[in-house]
Amino acid sequence: MVDHQARLAVLIDADNSQPSIIAGLLDEIASHGIASVKRIYGDWTDTRLKSWKSTLLEHGLQPIQQFAYTTGKNATDSAMIIDAMDLLYTKNFDGFCIVSSDSDFTRLASRIRESGIKVYGFGEQKTPKSFIGVCDKFIYTENLRRTQNYKEDHTPKIKSDHKALLALVRNAVEDTTNEAGWSYLGAIGQNLINKSPEFDPRSYGYKKLLDLIEGLGEFEFKYSDPFSGAQAVHVRIKRPKRSYER
Q: What is the pTM of this model?
C-alpha cells in the first residue's frame, strides 16, 4: 500500500522571488508532498523578468501573465490571490506553498488555514512578521540557495543570539518532556515550528535540528537501537552531576 502524499499548490510571485532559489525551493517542497500545481505570476512582457525564461522551462513552471494595468498597484498579487481561492474551493489540495516576501498575502494565508489546509510560506528574511506568523511553516529563501554547502567541517554561526536560541530550544524540550524525562526529537521540532514558523536550523548554519541541538552543548541524547527498524532520538537538558557520580 502506497502512503498518501500531500498534494500541494505552488504559487510563486515572480516580482518578489529570484530564479536562483527555484531548484532548492522545489527540493524543499518535495519533502512536504507533491507539487501538483506550479504556477508563477508576473508581467512577462516586462524585461525585468526575462531572467526567468530558462528556469520556467527547466522546472515546468506555468507562467501566468498579469499586465500591470495601473502604476503603483500590484496586479500580480491580486491574480495570485484569486487563483489561490479558486484552487482552495476545489478541495483537491492538502497544502499551499506561497512564494513571496510580500505582506499582501497575509490574509490569504490566514484564510487558507481557516479551511484546515496547511500553508508553507517562502520568502526572504525581510518578509514582514505578519505574513510569517500566519503560515504553518515559513522557510527563508536564503537557506535554499544552491551556493550553500553543508560540509562535515562546516563551522556553524551561533553568536550573539546564542542565549535566545538556547532559551527557545530549552522551552521546546521542557514542553515535550515525557514521564521518563526525555523529549522526542520530532516533537521538539514541531513545537519549535508551532512557536516560530520561521525556525530553521539552516538559519544558524546547521543542516539538521539534531546537529543544532548538539552544537548548543546543553543537552544529552538517547538513541534507540538502529536494528529495531525505526531509529528515534530523545533529548533532555543536561543534569548536574552529583558528588558521588564524579
A: 0.84
